[in-house]
Amino acid sequence: MKRKGFIILLWVSLGTALFFFLFFTKEKSFHNFLITLLISSMYSFVLGLGNALINEFLNRKFPWSETTGIRAVLSVISIIIGNFILVYFCNYMNYVVIQKTATTEAFFSKEYGTTNWFMINIALLISAFLHAKSFMEELKKTSRKEVVEQKLIAKSANAQFESLKNQLDPHFLFNSLNVLSSLIDENPNQAQKFTASMSKIYRYVLEQKDKELVTVEDEIEFAKTYCDLLKTRFEDSVDFVFDVKKEDYKRYVVPLSLQLLLENCIKHNFATSARPLVIKIFSDNDTLCIENNLQAREQMKESAGIGLANIVQRYALLTKKNVFIEKSEDYFKVKVPILSDKPSNISAKIDTEDGSYEKAKKRVKELKGFYGNLISYCTVIPFLIIVNLLTSPHNLWFYFPMLGWGVGVASHAFQVFGVGESWKERKIREIMEKQKNRR
């Protein structure tokens, strides 16, 4: 326990001693005050330190944030058993050892049973409050930690995304200038047309490079312009076939993905008039496919690995859908996901589909409800015991609400930590995992 805890216990001991000395001690003397202070300190420190040690041990072995269900069950069991032992110890020291108002046999008889039970309920009230306070502090700490972690992840992902996008400008410009330099010597007129097309394409690159997603329609129009540029250089050696469904035009893809994939087709395959390279762009089951007949170059230039890897990484930052690559002896195909969401809604959709926040919110509500029920029980039952003992000590009716409500608290505990919806969900997941492993 920290220094602050010891100071609080000292003030509680002094305040309790003054209260009992002023209102319940007949002979006001310094000796009696010291005895009252000693008894008060014993109760405060034994119960306070005992519960603090139990709580600290459980915090180390079973943190709230990692094992919430197990920790809650252990907390309930530990505060009941622990306070039962601690209260009996304090009462024994008080009545048998210090004040000597009872013998050992009398202390464990029915005569002191009500007194012991009353003190146990008081101790349970205080202990339940401390454990609930510990839970709320751990919940706040975990929430703050998760918020910080999510911010760091978001910043890291954004920085990574920006880094990936910034690779496109120099890469595209470098390749375009290489094509232009070769055309200047071969065909100056086509080089001039190529320059005009390149300026149009580069304008699109500059417009779209700051966007996470663009419409399929915009990307297709850009791809057609880029294909015209390639046709300027390769003429009949390359053919392009576009067959994208009109209903997919308003959906979204990663910007410049088609340009990079078309560039890969040209770079990794040879094309001649006798054996033209045929590149098909079409949509199929929520994917945009780029397929070419496989005519692999025998001596390929060293690749920087930017194109396809860039697209895969950018999709990984935006969605859980994967980029698929198919290769056979006759063709090479890349499938990129077509997304239905607008760029600003993607992250929100992933969070909604996952449902982690709503599940956590529901779980916290269940735990708060249970601890509220437990604290209410530990508060009301001692009050009923006092009323019963003051009004009709020979008719102990407080047992009925104590037992009835106690069964309700126990049932609530099993529902929240053992046999509730969370238990059903866990069992369903376990069965599904077993079936999955068998397959």
From TrEMBL:
<feature type="transmembrane region" description="Helical">
    <location>
        <begin position="30"/>
        <end position="53"/>
    </location>
</feature>
<feature type="domain" description="2TM">
    <location>
        <begin position="358"/>
        <end position="433"/>
    </location>
</feature>
<dbReference type="Pfam" id="PF06580">
    <property type="entry name" value="His_kinase"/>
</dbReference>
<keyword id="KW-1133">Transmembrane helix</keyword>
<feature type="transmembrane region" description="Helical">
    <location>
        <begin position="7"/>
        <end position="24"/>
    </location>
</feature>
<dbReference type="InterPro" id="IPR036259">
    <property type="entry name" value="MFS_trans_sf"/>
</dbReference>
<dbReference type="InterPro" id="IPR010559">
    <property type="entry name" value="Sig_transdc_His_kin_internal"/>
</dbReference>
<feature type="domain" description="Signal transduction histidine kinase internal region">
    <location>
        <begin position="159"/>
        <end position="237"/>
    </location>
</feature>
<dbReference type="InterPro" id="IPR025698">
    <property type="entry name" value="2TM_dom"/>
</dbReference>
<keyword id="KW-0808">Transferase</keyword>
<dbReference type="InterPro" id="IPR050640">
    <property type="entry name" value="Bact_2-comp_sensor_kinase"/>
</dbReference>
<keyword id="KW-0812">Transmembrane</keyword>
<protein>
    <submittedName>
        <fullName>2TM domain-containing protein</fullName>
    </submittedName>
</protein>
<feature type="transmembrane region" description="Helical">
    <location>
        <begin position="370"/>
        <end position="390"/>
    </location>
</feature>
<feature type="transmembrane region" description="Helical">
    <location>
        <begin position="396"/>
        <end position="419"/>
    </location>
</feature>
<dbReference type="GO" id="GO:0016020">
    <property type="term" value="C:membrane"/>
</dbReference>
<feature type="transmembrane region" description="Helical">
    <location>
        <begin position="117"/>
        <end position="136"/>
    </location>
</feature>
<feature type="transmembrane region" description="Helical">
    <location>
        <begin position="73"/>
        <end position="97"/>
    </location>
</feature>
<keyword id="KW-0472">Membrane</keyword>
<keyword id="KW-0418">Kinase</keyword>
<dbReference type="Pfam" id="PF13239">
    <property type="entry name" value="2TM"/>
</dbReference>
<dbReference type="GO" id="GO:0000155">
    <property type="term" value="F:phosphorelay sensor kinase activity"/>
</dbReference>
